[in-house]
Each structure stands twice: as structure tokens, then as C-alpha cells.
Amino acid sequence: MNIDFESATFKDFENIPGYTMSERAEIFYDFLNFMSSNGHMNYRLKNNSGCSSVMNVNINETQNDYVSFVSNDYLGFTQHPKIKQAAIEGIQKYGTGAGASSLIGGHFVFHDDLEKKLSSFFGRTQEEAVIFTTGYTANSATLQILLQKEDIAIIDMAVHASVYEGCVFTNTKTFPHNNLEALEHILKTSENKFRTKLIIIDGIYSQDGDVSPLKEIYKLAKKYNAYLMVDDAHGVGILGDKGRGVLEEADMLDKVDIITGTFSKTFGNVGGYVITDKKLAAFIRFQSRQQIFSATAPPSIMGIIKAIELIDEEPHWRKKLWDNISYFKSGLNELGLDTGNTCSAIVPVKIGDPNITGDVGKLLIERGIYTNPILYPAVARKDARIRMAVMATHEREHLDKTLNAFEDINNKLRIAKI
User: Fold this and answer.
1) What is the set of domains in the chain, with CATH numbers?
2) Is 414 helix (H, G, I), strand (E, B) or coil?
3) Count of CB atoms within 10 A of residue 265's CB?
């Protein structure tokens, strides 16, 4: 089987008919070498410095500083001294690991404190949070245990991969992104056919940075007796007057049945959470395979507790972030570049052609800008883009340097839409 490396994506090597696992690995290895040779290998680069708006990166065995847009650490909290100190104190008091799963001795006071802090943060004090060691498993492990073959998950097609993995044991229907008419059609045709109907959406979508029409989807959920789950990984700490995310902005913090999210973005750590009513929370704790068979998070997650507090104590980080978002997006749009419908810290420059997108990523690196070209299957084949995450710690000079680089690249490759 011949695969055209010029137009191929990672997905094309997932399962090649007639090829053994070793043969698939060999041809994929050749593809990685091809990407490296043409400068399109902007993935798994070795970072020599901490997560920040400027990072020291090893590229082609050479270390240089780059203005970085690859981190979802939107408020810069991975480097906040108070958060670092809280994590250090957690380690000093409890050690470096929990040593067991939550059911058999790995549930500590700092886990309990974090779960209570989360419920309080979202104003869901009558409900409970369940924490996971990754945001991915917060979705996948929860959905795998809540939904079975008698149930159905109704999914916006742009949700995170973790949601799709979580629905492998149940029936699924996807609807075009943010398409309310298509969603209602699925709800109508699913009436009285399934034991549980669960609509699953993101608050902010990770590739386009756009917002879900939450109020309208909630109305449809109630009309057709469905549950609603919202993963607001990219909205919490960013949107809303108090940084509670899309749900706060839509005045729906108390409406959604299940809230999920991650600690790896605004909260500057790693892990994930689910917030729901006490009985469902207990069911997840005692039935989820990840809760039963995986060790719990280490004491360094005490830094997350401090990060949650700082959302309220230091709102200037959110203001600085939005100043940066507005300035950067306006600059890109003035160049005629397509940033889509983003209304968050995720700012894409949509290009379309995957090979040209790879060239843009290469040219940005050459100009000292570290970004991620995003290709199929993360987005549609003809919707390739450069995805950038703006941070509160970006300075105006960083943004201007990037805008100047895009202007030069546009003059060379003509990527502007107008």
C-alpha cells in the first residue's frame, strides 16, 4: 500500500489493512522522518525551560528561546510563586505520592479539601466533586460507567477525544457543531428508545475557541427529558465575571447535570474533575475503573487549591489575558487572517491546506514563534490551522513579534482570506 507522505496525516497510519503492527510502525517512522526533513515536525519538541509565554526549545539539536503559544496555561499559574509554594508544602508534608487508589488507602485530606473547594468554587455546595488524575479520564472513565448499551450519548461532533472514548460502551449520535436543529432531531427520534439520554458538549471548543449555545441546548435537554454534561476545560478561569467559565457567563451554574473540567489549563497542574449530585458522585467513585484501579493524585495538587483561590484573589490576571486576546486577535484580523468564531484564549489562524499549514509552522519557528499546526483528525481535512493559546504573561512585544511574523509569511504564502 502506497501512502502519499505529502498529503498524509497521523490518522492514515492508524490501521493499514494487511500490515502487522511492526510494519505499520515502520512506515509511520518513515513518515515522521519525512516530516522532520521538511521542517513540519512541530510535535514532541524538547522544552528546556518551564511552561511560559517564552520557552527555551531544542529544535534540530539547537537551543533557542521562542515566543510560545503552545501552552493552555492561560493565566500563567504554572509559574505563580504562591502556587509553587503550596505544591512544595504539600510534598513536604505528605511526600511525593499517594501510594494507592482512592478506595484502598489513597484518599487523603488534600484530595477531600480539593473536592470541597471545587464544589464551592462553582456554587454547587449541595453537590460533590470527584477528582481524577487526568482531565482525559475525568471524561472517559465517568462516561464509561454512566452509559451502557441501553443508553445513548448525543454528542456535538467537536467535543474532545476523551468523550468519544468514554462512549465506547453505549449508543452514540453526533450532531454538527452547535447545530440546534440537528440536535433536536436526534432528541425527537430517540424518545422512548433509550433508558438514559445524555447530551455532551464543551463550553469552549478546543480547536475553534468558540462557545456552545448553552441556554438553547439546556432548553432542548429539558424538553426531551435528557441530561446535560458540559466540559468547560477551556472556559473556567477565563470567562464570566468571576472566572467560573461559560456556565457563569450564561447564568447556568446551577442548571447543568454534570460539569467536567481539567486542572492542566487555568489551574496550572494536572488532573480533572466531575461535579454532579451526591448520588451520581458516589456511583462514579465506587464504579469508575480509573477510581478503583489507578493511584490517586500526589500531594503536589495542593497547588490547585491555591490556584482556585487566586482566581478570586488576583483577578488582574484575567484582565491582562483579555487585553492580550483582544489586541492579538485584532492584529491578525487586520492582516486578513481567518480566526474563525473564537471568543476565548484559543486563537486559530485557519489556512485549510495541511501542507501549507505545515510550511507556516516551519516559517514561524524560523522567526522565533513556537506554535502548533493542527491537522486531521483533530480538525477536518480541509480545515487545517495554526492553533495558538494566548496567555496573560504574554507581553505586547511578544504579540507584535508574532503579528510581524504572520505579516511576512502572508506576503510569501498568501494565507489571508481577503
Assistant:
1) 78-313 (3.40.640.10), 315-418 (3.90.1150.10)
2) coil
3) 26
